[in-house]
Amino acid sequence: MSFSLLDNPAIGIATILLYAASAWLLYRRTATDGSAYNEAPATANGGPSVVWLLALTAAVIHALMLLGSTFTSSGLNLSFFNSLSVTAWLAVVLTLLLNIGRPVINLGLFLFPMAAIALCLSLFFAYHNASTLAPGMQWHVLTSVIAYALLTISAGQALLVSLQDKRLKNRNTGGILRALPPLKTMETVLFQLLLTCFVFLSLSLVTGFLFLDDLFAQRLVHKTTLSLVAWLLIAVLLIGHLRWGWRGQKAAGFTLGAFISLLLGYFGSKFVIELLLSAPA
């Protein structure tokens, strides 16, 4: 059976609905009883939590579809919409895995709808740009995608930290704050995510310098420059946190700046090259 997005629109729509249901249930729990941050892979009575199980089911089906749309007979499909779908899927999977030991399920409020939208776009705007990559370039692609996914998760966490910090300063402890762990815990998770992202982004840049013929060629200069900007922003933030205790709004600002830079560097350049200029990336 083929799991290509293009060949199985009904499966894609069902997966989108699963992501949407996960986000809706998570929102309801966050808005009503504030118990979302305790949402673990298993509930107290040993059964799987509904939100986690629905999101996991969606991610598994999504993965099966990506196998058909990414690994083609012509090579690896790294087109704009498919890359977006892969990154969103990986961000969801990493969040579900991280939630086993850390309270990050609230990120599903951002990530589950993002995965649904990315899957919808890849379903209705299927575009194939397959190529055969050398082993070194495969490592570059793998570390890049993991870095993008981790920075996406970090950006979501930074938004929650920023919101929580502002509301606590204004002594507004209602609403979503009831569903969030203590601010110190949220910031600890954020910096753990950023450190891991920094490692993979560093590996991505190193493998790019090693295995790409010219990382600053005209078609790659924007991607490379903006990726380096994102790397520098994360590095400065990590150093600032260790030496001067940077946290709260400053940490959120640096994180979101790095996310936007990397987003423009990779997906922005692919969007212009593939969709506006109609040239292979």
Search tags:
2 domains, three-stranded antiparallel sheet
Helix content: over 70%
Strands of the largest sheet, in order across it?
A: 1-2-3
The count of helical stretches stands at: 8
Q: Evaluate the radius of gyration.
A: 19 Å
- Topology pattern, helix = H, strand = E: HHEEHHEHHHH
What does the average pLDDT come to?
Answer: 84
Uncertain stretches: 1-6, 42-48
Class from helix and strand fractions: mainly alpha
Which percent band covers the strand fraction? under 5%
Separation of the first and last Cα atoms: 29 Å
Q: How would you describe the shape?
A: globular
Total number of beta strands = 3
Number of domains: 2
In terms of quaternary structure, the protein is single chain
Largest sheet, strands/sense/barrel: 3 strands, antiparallel
3D structure, described in words:
The chain is 70% helix and 2% strand. It has 281 residues and is an all-alpha fold. It folds into two domains: 1-132, no CATH class; 133-281, no CATH class. A hairpin with a 2-residue loop joins strand 1 and strand 2 (75-77). The model is unreliable at 1-6 and 42-48 (pLDDT under 50).
Describe what is shown at a glance:
By secondary structure, the chain is mainly α. It has helices spanning 9-32, 50-70, 80-98, 108-124, 135-169, 183-211, 221-244, 248-276, and strands at residues 71-72, 75-77, 130-131. A 3-stranded antiparallel beta sheet has the order 1-2-3.
